[in-house]
Amino acid sequence: MTRLSVNLNKVALLRNSRHLGIPSVPGMGAVALAAGARGITVHPRPDQRHIRPDDVAALSVLLRDWPDAEFNIEGNPFDNLMDYARRYRPHQCTLVPDSPDAFTSDHGWRFPDDLLRLSPVVSELHALGIRVSLFMDPDAAQMSGAAATGANRVELYTEAYANAFGTAAEQAVLDRYVAAARAATDAGLGINAGHDLNQSNLGRLLDAIPAIEEVSIGHALTAEALEMGMAATVRAYTGVTERPR
Predict the structure, then answer these.
(1) Angle at 25 between CA 39 and CA 91, to 5 degrees
(2) Best exposed site among 31, 61, 125, 140 by fewest CB in 10 Å?
(3) Separation of alpha carbons 212 and 110, rounded Å
(4) Three-state DSSP class for residue 134
(5) Residues 8, 242, 68, 39: what is their CA dihedral angle, to the nearest 10 degrees?
(6) Closest residue by Cα to residue 158 from 96, 215, 101
(7) What is the pLDDT of residues 51-101, one digit of tens each?
(8) Cβ–Cβ contacts within 10 Å for residue 152, how many?
(9) How far is CA 190 from CA 13, 41, 221, in A?
(10) 124 noted as active-site residue
(11) pLDDT tens, position by position, 211-226
């Protein structure tokens, strides 16, 4: 079974467009969890364009009522992520090498370039009792470097797969992800995935890589929830993530 973690960034982005406090970020998180989501993901950027510090605090409290669900905080450990990790002790931190002004996450860590600076961060997070996942491009040659940091998992950056889905390039691109996943497993790493995944392309990815333990989905899920409702959308996704493989 693959766990669905619902990314609430775009719910916060909509909320931030007015000063009315709606939609409620923890409220939508509660709806998602009640509908079967296995976790909540946030990426609190330094400019607070979507998730704000109060959201992280409120979600940390919410998740106390859902002991089987996980809290995943994403971000750059050399910007503001570590402050959240030390204060809230989420179940998982996903380390992402994006700049503060990045439009969205668009590349993974590179090794050996990032090894020396990431290793102490991973060690600190482990000392806090936090599982560590590294945001990685689908490059099999990079997985041993990711493992050398001491990280527990990698999150495969799936934009390339999403862009190729339904085109003549799909199989060749998917093969790269399969090879990267195999290399990660061989290096002792667990596998997560995320970015531009949706109801259409998710099943094909999970069928090809059944070892994926968690997918983090936000933009498409939030957009689909405008039509279907949050609860129905989460149930549709868990129908894909939790079907036998």
Answers:
(1) 30
(2) 61
(3) 21
(4) strand
(5) -10
(6) 215
(7) 999 999 999 999 999 999 999 999 999 999 999 999 999 999 999 998 666
(8) 19
(9) 30, 18, 24
(10) no
(11) 999 999 999 999 999 9
Does the annotation count 195 as an active-site position?
Answer: yes
Q: How far apart are CA 77 and CA 191, in angstroms?
A: 20
Q: Which of the residues 50, 70, 155, 195 is marked catalytic?
A: 195
E-strand spans in 2-96? Answer: 3-7, 39-42, 70-75, 92-95
In the set 43, 50, 70, 155, the catalytic residue is: 43
* Total residue length of the chain: 245
The domain limits of the chain are 3-241
Element (H, E) at 179: helix 170-186
Work out the average pLDDT over 134-154: 98
Active-site residue, selected from the candidate residues 70, 74, 155, 224? 74
Annotated active-site residue 74? The verdict is: yes
For residue 207, pLDDT beyond 80: yes
